[in-house]
Amino acid sequence: MKGFRLLLGISPLVILGLGTNIGNRLENLRKAYQLLRKIPDISIKRVSSIYQSPALLPTGAPASWDVPYFNMCVAIETTLSPSELLTQTKDIEKKVGRKPELEWGPRVMDIDILAWEHLIINDGKLHIPHEHLHERAFALFPLAEIAPFWTYPLPGIFCGKKAIEIADSFGPRELSLTKPIPHRIDFPELVGIVNVTPDSFSDGGNNVLCMQLVEDGAEIIDIGAESTGPLATPISETEEWNRLHPILQQFLAEKSSSLITPRISIDTYHPNIAKKALALGVDWINDVTGLDNIHMREVLAEHSSDVVFMHHMGVPVSRSDLIPLHEDPVAHVFEWAEKRIDLLQSSGIDRSRLIFDVGIGYGKTAEQSFELIQNISVFRKLNVRLLVGHSRKSFLKKFTTKPAKDRDLETVIVSLYLANTHVDYLRLHNIADHLRAFKIKAAF
């Protein structure tokens, strides 16, 4: 295989191992991955699942060191030499936040060159393959996932064995201690939808649902208590808060027990509701009116939360108030977003806090919504993060007669397209099915 790859002019396949057990472990991995993607001499080919495993501790290590690691592997092709790649990975470690630490101590980011085709190097600075690779399930399991037929070149009982064979030789203990988690860092972050409303097409808001979405792999939970659909019945702010407060209070108390501590978003366009939620410690405010209300802008200018602002033609949605059919919907929404970003910045809300939602289904025909999705990359020019909320939306009736609750298949397929455009967030009802789809897509 090595000779065949060289004959075709393909660069050697290199496997990097990434590990972290300090701070926001998922975010640390995501930052390192994004920095790898920016290196011109590196082409990322495959990304493994993330595996959680216990820390390797020396005798007498402080209890504070006993924090589980998140580990993963990335298969790359590169024109860099091994020493040049080492320099690049050490630079990424520092950019993610690694500082000099004690040997075996906790670390923000550790990047090892685990394998380089059949190359063997042992020059004091570099050990390729990694000298302990065959002993460490947390490195070998993700390697075997993305390069199962890589053969171990070092002398000994594993020489000539394929990665998948060595991985299969581990016993029940390693299998029980080193397990994949559902979350991924090579796809958009997933925002789980929780509607605590009696008139939404996807109801079911309760704390059990919040925790289930987190367990399924959601990194943000977006909780809304007022429907804004075409048939929505307006409610008072008192009623909205009475619906929100119990679930919000309970979820805030319980979220830290999760494998990944999720961020909490509140879907509201009422300044008083936003103010109360922010006082409790929520992370995002998601305003479907795009912060039309000056008082909402004033509330958010006094806080540091992230802000989702959405394009719309009116809230609640009206089927008659649409982007004019003679206009280009992409240009229309882009121009609106540019003006709105200027307004929000002049109101004291920094651009770095902004997340733009093109507003699928809000004042758009099915065809207009679909065109926005097809051209979502255009909105990268806004220089803000992008969120798309297409889950189970009515524009999917172009492709299916299924009711809203049965449109998850269509939603997943659209999400796979959006993942290729590198949007930042997908707002979804069904998190588990998406991560199943992402995992198999990542294998190709």
Keyword list:
18% strand, 16 strands, single chain, eight-stranded parallel beta barrel, alpha/beta, 444 residues
Q: How would you describe this protein?
A:
It is a single chain. This protein is an alpha/beta fold and 444 residues long. The protein is built from 14 helices and 16 strands. The protein has helices at 2-7, 25-37, 82-96, 137-146, 163-168, 172-177, 207-216, 237-254, 271-280, 294-301, 329-346, 366-374, 408-420, 431-442; strands at 13-20, 42-47, 50-53, 69-78, 110-116, 121-122, 127-128, 179-181, 189-195, 220-224, 263-267, 284-287, 306-310, 354-357, 385-388, 425-428. An eight-stranded parallel β-barrel has the order 9-10-11-12-13-14-15-16, surrounded by four helices. Strand 12, helix 10 (294-301) and strand 13 form a beta-alpha-beta unit. The two termini are 18 Å apart. Residues 1-9 and 200-205 have low confidence and may be disordered.
Entry summary:
35% of the residues lie in helices and 18% in strands.
